[in-house]
Amino acid sequence: IGVVTERILMRTDDITVKLSEIMGPALIEIKPKTSKETIINLFKDDEPAVLVKNNEGSYVGIVTPADTF
User: Fold this and answer.
1) Below-50 pLDDT ranges, the chain
2) What is the DSSP string of the chain?
């Protein structure tokens, strides 16, 4: 559906707001063999993380910017 990051929460003054009202777009899905270069380029576009999804349609991991160092 979407993602809520710390940055989004910090910009929201109303503590009674529903998450569905402030969440960002869904995370990008990548295949396990996606290159590190491709992933780094996604993070340059301010993606908070990417989901790794195998050919069977199961999620097998999540990659964050910190994982690329």
Assistant:
1) none
2) --B--HHHHHT---TT--HHHH-BPPPEEE-TT--HHHHHHHHHTT-S-EEEE-TTS-EEEEE-GGGG-
